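Chapter summary example.
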Amino acid sequence: MRGKSAQELTDHIADLRREQFSLRMQKAQGQSAQTHQFAKVRREIARAATILGQKQVAQKQNGAA
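The structure predicted for these 65 residues follows.
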């Protein structure tokens, strides 16, 4: 995941958020049997957001130096 560009990470986060929304809707309708997916998607969003933040900080440091 670290090899992805900032734009690719942003797109990945957007896709994961759509998946998270879909899972919440399935849960609300009583269709969700895969409760482990909630935590998996939430953690994946956090990982991608962390890497994106690190890339942005590194880019600012490289630009300021």
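To summarize the output: The CA atoms of residues 28 and 59 lie 41 Å apart.
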